[in-house]
Amino acid sequence: MKGKMKAIIKKENKPGAVLDVVDIPKISPDEVLVNVKVASICGTDVHIFGWNEWAQSRIRTPLIIGHEFAGEVVEIGSNVKSLKVGDFVSAETHIPCNQCFQCKTGKQHICKNVSILGVDINGVFADYVALPEICAWKNSEKIPLEFASVQEPLGNAVYATLEGGGVAGKKVAIFGCGPTGLFAIGVAKVAGSSDIISIGKHKFRMEIAKKMGADHILKYPEDDISKKIEEITDGEGVDVVLEMTGSQDAINYGLSVLKKGGRFTAFGIPSGKVEIDIANGIIFKGAVVVGISGRKMFDTWYRVANLLESKRIDISPIITHKFPLDEYEKGFNLMMSKERKAAKILLFP
Question: What is the CATH number assigned to the segment(s) 4-150+315-348?
Answer without folding.
Answer: 3.90.180.10
